[in-house]
Amino acid sequence: MNPEKYIVQKHPIWEVWKTAARLGLVSFGGPVAHLGYFREEYVKRKQWMDEKTYADLVALCQLLPGPASSQVGIGIGFLQAGMLGAIAAWIGFTLPSALILLLFAYFSKGIAIDWLHGLLVVAVAVVAHAVWGMARAFAFDRSRATIAVAAAILSFLFPNAGGQVVIIIVAGMLGSLLYRSHSPTAVSSISISSGKKVSFLLIFFILLGLLPLVAQLTSSPLVALFDSFYRAGALVFGGGHVVLPLLQAQVMTKGWVTNEQFLTGYGMAQAVPGPLFTFATYLGMVSFGWKGAIVATIAIFLPSFLLVIGTLPFWEWIRQHARFQAAFHGIHAAVVGILLAALYHPVWTKAIQTPADFCLALAAFCLLAIWKCPPLLVVIVSAIIGAFI
Predict the structure, then answer these.
(1) Which contacts qualify for 288-297: CB closer than 8 Å, 24 or more apart?
(2) pLDDT tens by residue, 41-98
(3) What contacts 146, CB < 8 A, 6 or more positions away?
(4) Judging by beta carbons within 10 Å of its beta carbon (0-12, 13-18, 19+), is residue 14 exposed, middle or buried?
(5) CB-based contacts of 209: which residues, under 8 Å, 6+ apart?
């Protein structure tokens, strides 16, 4: 491989952290909005990279499992200041929402469930909005819609994390056959020397294979928690909302959290800025206290570090292989189906108990999808109304 040289002006680690922290405090609206904030800050305002470099990095992260916006931030930090820059960028962007959700998990134990009911209901609107948007983007024709519906049905037949992995793999195989004639998008390449970066990919796969064995041998609840959240972070395609069914299969089936706790935390996660994956902080705190919060947060984001840094050297190769990209057409369609199944259970079945609940969820969906209201406003209003119904 003959890597291209791209010019990225280096900046101190402190400045990388400070910039990411500011974004972590104001970036409401989900991963798509986050990428808009990033472009405005890193490309337009600070001019740390040009449009093509940023577009390449976004495209790479869209192909990888995990939270795309966090991965873009990690990649920018890495290009600016190496591994320490990547860590600084991740901490800065993640810490605000993680702290808010940690405190919410601690103090919500004493809150009457009536006051949390609105958060359960607004989760229905948020997930429905995500399904609607993703279906329009990834399941817009007959074949993709069929894959999505089949994935939803199979998700009910095999409601565990292993079944979801098989669904994603099969959908990728179908995609590579059905959409291989689609030409890859032509963009400028981000290509860096592979060197030791290959070791990050090896670590990714080694952990994915060995952690379940280590969890069984040690019988440690924190090791089991790390294994569950690492696997969720490694297998989520399509953005933060898609982590819902994977985490539900991991934590609720093991009895670490209740349905009410799970959906309440998910509803609250919509109200905070930064990555939705900090939902893991809440779940870890509820399950095993502050140690669980730290373990779950590190575990769910670790695959993003390993994949982004490990795949950057091979970006040019990936972009030139239509069959590889075609697989993701099928995977993205399957993700829509998996999320559709999660919309019904556990989100709908737990939150919608009365006609008033349905009306509140419908109104919240209208505010999000039609009026484009900020998620924070919708969550606050829904929580207040939910307390009275």
Answers:
(1) 288/221, 288/222, 288/225, 288/256, 290/102, 291/222, 292/222, 292/225, 293/98, 293/102, 293/105, 295/222, 295/225, 295/226, 295/229, 296/225, 296/226, 296/229, 297/94, 297/98
(2) 888 888 888 777 787 787 678 778 888 889 999 999 988 888 899 999 999 999 999 9
(3) none
(4) exposed
(5) none
Q: CA-to-CA distance for 279 and 299, rounded, in angstroms?
A: 12
**212-237 tens-digit pLDDT:** 999 888 888 999 999 989 988 888 77
Q: Which CA distances in Å does 291 have to 82, 283, 295?
A: 28, 11, 6
DSSP 1: -
Do 343 and 131 contact (CB within 8 A), yes or no?
yes
Amino acid, res. 327? A
Tokens, residue 9:
């002006």
What pTM was computed for the model? 0.73
